[in-house]
Amino acid sequence: MSVLELRDISVRYGGIVAVHGVSLTVETGEVVALLGANGAGKSSLLNGVAGLIRGTRGSVVLDGRDIGREAAYRRARAGLLQVPEGRAIVGSLTVEENLLLGAYTRRGRAARDASLRAAYDLFPVLRDRRDVGGAMLSGGEQQMLAVGRALAGAPRCVVMDEPSVGLSPLMIETVFARVRSMADTGVGILLAEQNVPASLAIADRVYVLQRGEVVRSGTATEIEADDAIMQAFLGVGANDVGS
Ligand code: ATP
User: Fold this and answer.
1) Would you say the C-alpha torsion 19, 25, 26, 31 has a positive or negative sign?
2) Measuring CA to CA, how many Å separate 55 from each of 5, 41, 78, 99, 113?
């Protein structure tokens, strides 16, 4: 059974259809990349699935249960967590306080301590910076905190919206490697990105979104080897990948 299954998801803003009939699956332990240009509908899909856009239709099946009509906080409590675009960490709170916010659904001191430990083990730099205010962190550290905060919520599946934005190539590599490690612990990850090479480097499978619809899907290896898809849909020349 897939950890996350989206069936026929549509997202509308009034008369504008941003996502149309998207179906996809994420298995336990998988990184699934959702690739597409600016405006393809990636953010709309992720925000709709998280329960943040009223005009969303379709089934959001988490661990076999359709949570697609539940409030956003209930979806989070069920284990569907978000790393939102722009990170949305709280600048006036410390690193540890931000992580505790992520762990708010966990009951009891022992569970919360385990959550903090999991986030600090994934990103040891956060442990060193635990008492530093969120606003004082570098962009890379803020992104680590956003990912760590999701992990602190003991997720079954995490949807991430363009975590590479604003990071140096080296920092992208660091953060993405940790995202891969997080999946390897048994979390499903749906990663929306415009950075095709960085995503292909860690993804198991790929869905290509164009104008709100899935136009291609396959394993990361298949997509990467298909020059036509890479050039037509993703704007990447064959020589750009893996460099
Ligand atoms: P980006 O990389 O810029 O985030 P994206 O692939 O995530 O792009 P969306 O932001 O989901 O794409 O946008 C998909 C479409 O929905 C675009 O045509 C956009 O103009 C439209 N759209 C997004 N948000 C709104 C909104 N709040 N109201 C109306 N239309 C919107």
Assistant:
1) negative
2) 19, 14, 21, 31, 38
- For residue 50, the CA-to-ligand 1 centroid distance in Å is 15
CB atoms inside a 10 Å sphere around CB 78:
18
CA distance 230 to 236: 5
Q: Which domains does the chain have, with CATH numbers?
A: 1-79+156-168+175-243 (3.40.50.300), 89-154 (no CATH)
pLDDT band at residue 238, thresholds of 50, 70 and 90? low
Token pair 């009223």 is at which residue?
A: 54
Residues 6+ apart with CB under 8 A from 161: 42, 43, 46, 47, 82, 83, 84, 85, 192
Distances (CA, A) of 19 to 58, 132, 188: 11, 39, 22
243 falls in which pLDDT band (50, 70, 90)?
A: very low
Distance in Å, CA 19 to ligand 1 centroid: 9
pLDDT higher than 60, residue 88: yes
Closest Cα to atom 9, ligand 1: which residue?
A: 41
DSSP state of 188: E
